[in-house]
Amino acid sequence: MNPIPDHLDYGLAVLFIGYNPSIRSGETGHHYANPNNRFWKIIHEAGLTPRKYKPEEDGELLKLGYGFTNIVARPTKTAAEITKAEYNTGRLRLMGTIEKYRPKIACFVGKGVYEHYSGKTGVAWGEQPESLVPGVVEFVAPSSSGLVRMSTGEITDIFRQMNDLSAKQIIETSDRP
């Protein structure tokens, strides 16, 4: 099973960061391709996309300012199969990616993704008070996996907070001399 390609560009509005690709994503080469994953529905219902996209359109979201990567590149059935060594390697690679591409918001799709990246525990949903990469807002959202017991509505409400962050950044940028 091969890793799937990242979709990256400089200055993205949001870089979505998952645990790792599912087996289905590894088979198709597209992010959030498992039919039980609610990602595409959630970001549309949160108002982040004008319509519900399909996994095979993941590269098209670069036009909207959205990119995709994972903390670990190896596809697995569940995140429980990821080793500590893979997380450690992935953390360093991910930090380099964020430093290089400097998205406005780094959205960690899963609390565990952020905990492995930051080394912090007990984090809250939403914007984090301190970023490891200055100037990049770190945002923690629930995993969109069908295995997560939160309702789609609850997850969507958390993702929706990124609209407010984006509006806040636009205002702050326009207030600068």
Automatic annotation (TrEMBL):
Transport as UniProt keyword: no
GO BP of this protein: base-excision repair, AP site formation
Signal peptide: none
PANTHER family, sorted: G/T AND G/U MISMATCH-SPECIFIC DNA GLYCOSYLASE, G_T MISMATCH-SPECIFIC THYMINE DNA GLYCOSYLASE
Keyword DNA repair on entry: yes
UniProt-recorded Gene Ontology molecular function terms: pyrimidine-specific mismatch base pair DNA N-glycosylase activity; uracil DNA N-glycosylase activity
Ranges where the Uracil-DNA glycosylase-like domain occurs: 6-161
InterPro entries, A to Z: MUG/TDG, Uracil-DNA_glycosylase-like, Uracil-DNA_glycosylase-like_sf
Highest taxon listed in the record's lineage: Bacteria
Name under which the protein is recorded: Mismatch-specific DNA-glycosylase
Keywords of this entry: DNA damage, DNA repair, Hydrolase
